[in-house]
Amino acid sequence: MAMKITEECIACGACVPECPTDSISEGDGVLYVIDAATCVECVGHYDAPQCIAVCPVECILKA
Prior knowledge:
Strand order of the largest sheet: 1-4
Order of helices and strands: EEEHE
Radius of gyration: 10 Å
Strand content: 15-25%
Number of strands: 4
Number of domains: 1
Oligomer: single chain
């Protein structure tokens, strides 16, 4: 499974440096996207997905 960033994203970039697998990148310039092929939901790195923990608008969900 992977995480998903919803349309509520404000493109603040807070999640990008927190991702241990570099799975988060700028999408179309309006919001960020998560590469489902490389996202591991922080398993093996942290106890919980770090992108969710740092998102100021709570726009990241488990897909």
